[in-house]
Amino acid sequence: AQRVTQPEKLLSVFKGAPVELKCNYSYSGSPELFWYVQYSRQRLQLLLRHISRESIKGFTADLNKGETSFHLKKPFAQEEDSAMYYCALSPTGTASKLTFGTGTRLQVTL
Amino acid sequence: NAGVTQTPKFQVLKTGQSMTLQCAQDMNHEYMSWYRQDPGMGLRLIHYSVGAGITDQGEVPNGYNVSRSTTEDFPLRLLSAAPSQTSVYFCATQAGGPMYGANVLTFGAGSRLTVL
Questions:
Q1: Fewest C-beta in 10 Å: which of A4, A27, A53, B77?
Q2: At a CB cut-off of 8 Å and minimum separation 6, what does A89 contact?
């Protein structure tokens, strides 16, 4: 069975400080990993996915198969980054049955 | 282009009552799914459909029923509501078929259900 673990329920950082939201996964095959974000009063939306190797809104995430991790990082936090972040996993090449982590609320304060 | 539309946005039920949460999409997406979001538990898949006439169970299907008679609509039915079904429900869609590799979901705004 696949599992996604986000160990922190809440992460509070100061504006301008680096951010790292942790995500570890458990899956025997080769997964696809995603980060979804939910801003206040907005819909859940895709932030980034590992296969794209892209940086969105200054965020990056590297898939580390050895450590089975997909941590989300940003060098300098902004107030508008405050949101709920979900890490998600899907087996490669199968139907879209995403398994989500429990989420981490990022709070950026002045 | 409305995307994914969920109705109602809010609903209060009494234990034992039945209701249907509606989900409609105008993007011609083949794949549709229902998730529930609970504090401390993230999003859990209830049911999903890979096309009209095809549905399957997710992680937490008990107490819920679905059907997919058209590409556009994927209603979620609570047959006999229980307090444990108090949650926020999200409908999500995805373009392409089940083997489409991107797995990028488009979510509705959510329906908040309270069962007393």
A1: A53
A2: A2, A4, A25, A27, A31, A32, A33, A34, A98, A99
